[in-house]
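Supplementary Data S3. Sequence and C-alpha cells for construct A.
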Amino acid sequence: MATVDDVEAALANVIDPELGLDFVELGLIYGITIEDGHVHVTYTLTTPGCPIGPQVESQIEEFVGELEGVASVDSEVTFVPPWSPEKMSEDAKFALGF
C-alpha cells in the first residue's frame, strides 16, 4: 500500500516547465488522501490562467499510478487558498531568488 510519503515522492517528478522546479518544492500540492488504494491529490497552479493544468493532471495520474498498491488516482485543482511564494520550500525560494 502506498503511503502519503510515497505519493509525495512520486509527485516530485511533476515539474513546472517554466520554473524548472517540482510541484512539491513549489508548494503546489495542497493535499493527498489515500483510501483503499485510491489516491486523491489536491493541487494548485501558480496562477488561475496557467496553461499547464491538463499536463499536470496527466503527470499526477502517471507518476502516482505507478506506485505499488495504487488502484486509481484522481486530482483536483483548487485556487483556495491562492498560491504565493511563501508556500515554497526554502530550497525553491533560494533557487528562484526569494
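Construct B, processed identically:
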Amino acid sequence: MAMNENEVNAFHWLADMLESVEVGLVVLDLEFRVQAWNGFMENHSGITASRIRDQILFDVFPDIPEAWLTRKVDAVAMLNTRAFTSWEQRPYLFKFRNTRPITGTEEYMFQNLTISPLSGTTGNVEKVCLMVYDVTDIASSKRALERANEQLAKLSMTDRLTGLKNRGTWENLVDAEYERYRRYGHATSLVMFDIDRFKKVNDTYGHLAGDEVIKHTAGMTLNNLRQSDSAGRYGGEEFGIILPETDAEGAKIICERIREGIEQSVVDTTAGPIQYTISMGIAQLTDVPENHMQWMQQADEALYAAKKSGRNRVMVFDA
C-alpha cells in the first residue's frame, strides 16, 4: 500500500532525527550483520552506513568483546527485554577517539550502552538495536574526582617535605606489625634514628639548608630499604623504620649501609656543601613489650645509647 503525503513526511522527519541525534544507533540481525548505522556512528567511526551494511560487526570491529556481546544479545532476544551496561562496568563498546574539547584529557570516548529487542510482524525478536551514549563528560569528571580524593588520601598519610609516611600513619604501621608478631611470631625489628647535631646545621646554614639535609636523609633511607620495609618521619630530624622478617643482625646490616652512605655523602645547598652523620637504634621485637609503644621505647633507648657512645653509630637494644 502506497504511503500518503503525511506518512511520507513523518517517515522523512523520523529518518532525519535518527541521523542527527547525538546517540549512536546500530541495528543488528541475530547473526550480528549490520542493518542500520546512523550519523553518530558514521562521524565517530569514519565508516559510512552503505559501506558497513550487511557486514558482520565483529569483522569490522575486532576489538569488540565478541563473547560478552553475544551473551548480552542472546539474553535480550530470548527474554524480549532490554539490557544495559555503563561505562563503569565496561568503559566502551566501540573504541572511538574522544573528540570533546572540554574533556580532551581522555583518550577514548566513554560509553553507556542499551540493547533493545526489535520484534517482527510475527512478534518474534528478529533484530536488536544498540544505543550508544557518549558519557565522556560524566566519566571524566568522576575519574578526576576519584584521582583528587586519592591524592588527598595520600597527602593525609605523607610527610610533605620528605614524601615518607607521616608520624600518625607510621605509628599505625608499627602497631600493625606488633600485632602481626603477636599472631605469627616472625622476627621483626624497629629502627629509630636522627640526624646528629641537627640544631647546629640549622644555626650554621639556615633552615632551608636544614630541610635539604632532612630530604637527603629520607632519600638515602629509601634507597637502601626493601619493598616490604616502611620508613616514616617521626618528627623534626627524627625518623623510624619498620623491618619485617628481619632480626637484629639483619637490621644492623641495613642500618650500617644507610649510616655509611650518609657519612660519605655531601649535600649541596645554596648555603654551601654540608656533611653530616646520623645515629641509629634497633630493637628486635620480643614477647617483653606489652604494646607497640613499649617496642618504640626500646628502639629509642638504643638510639640514646648510640648518641651517648659518641654518635654516628648503630646500637642494638640490650634488655
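The domain at 158-316 is CATH 3.30.70.270 (Alpha-Beta Plaits). The chain has two domains: 5-143, 158-316.
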